[in-house]
Amino acid sequence: MIQIRELHSLEEQFHARMIFDSVWPAANETQITSNLLQAMVHSGSYLVGVFDGAKVVGASFAFPSIEPEIHLHSHMTAFIDTHRDLGLGTAVKMHQWAWAKERRYNSITWTFDPLVRRNARLNILKLGADIISYQANFYGNMADDLNTGDESDRLMVRWDTRSVKPAPRAEMVEPPFDTELIALPFDITEIRRSDPELSQRLRYEVRESFTHALSSGKKVIGFSAHNEYVLE
């Protein structure tokens, strides 16, 4: 049985750190040190473990922020290989939404790689969150095995927590004729492994398209059945 529980003690937090380090491995580094995580949890940050029985199979970490409004910033969510693509990401986000709403945060923000199709679908369609900006190379060079050699472009997401409940969006089978479409590859992770030059070229193409569209006042209104951001 899957359960999502807050992690308060150092022993519980250790399991979350191991999840993060296993998903984003880096030589002689940890994604977050135990003392920093303990201080942030003690000060009111959000840290949960996803349990399959007694086993921790995922974790999520978020912290309070005040710019440009009082909100929760969700920094890391990860699952072990056997528990990906099972809908657990949606379950964790819904738990996070309820947690933030109960504590009267106005919204939750987070970032995701604009080239990752499944994350775009989750955030825009299932959760109904809004894309608020495009951040080129947001984290700089990332040393973990998953991101090394690539630029860390990110879309910034805002998810309102003041409504009664989240409002998912329907997939657009036929986007309106006057919208702009930004297409994504089906699996950028595989392209990054097999053809780094193509991966980089796709990165720059999507960056240029988004930067131009957002600067001209367009915004993301949905995601299409053909793996495209829909903007107007």
Give an overview in words.
Helix content is 32%, strand content 27%. With 232 residues, it is α+β, with helices and mostly antiparallel strands. It has a single domain, classed as Aminopeptidase (3-Layer(aba) Sandwich). Strand 2 (46-52) and strand 3 form a beta hairpin. Helix 5 (188-194) packs across helix 6. The relative contact order is 0.13.
Sheet-strand content, in percent, reads 25-35%
Give the C-level CATH assignment: Alpha Beta
Based on CA inertia axes, which overall geometry fits? Answer: globular
Count of DSSP strands: 10
Q: Helix amount, in percent?
A: 25-40%
Please give the CATH architecture. Answer: 3-Layer(aba) Sandwich
- If strands are numbered along the chain, what order do they take across the biggest sheet? 1-2-3-4-5-7-6
Span between N and C termini? 42 Å
Quaternary structure state of the chains depicted: single chain
The Rg value, from CA coordinates, equals 18 Å
Number of individual domains: 1
Please, what is the CATH homologous superfamily?
Gcn5-related N-acetyltransferase (GNAT)
Number of H/I helices: 6
Order of helices and strands: EHHEEEHEHEEEHHEE
Mean pLDDT over the full residue set: 95
**Global structural class:** alpha+beta
- Unreliable runs, pLDDT <50, ≥5 residues? none
Q: Would you give the CATH topology?
A: Aminopeptidase
Major pleated sheet: 7 strands, mixed
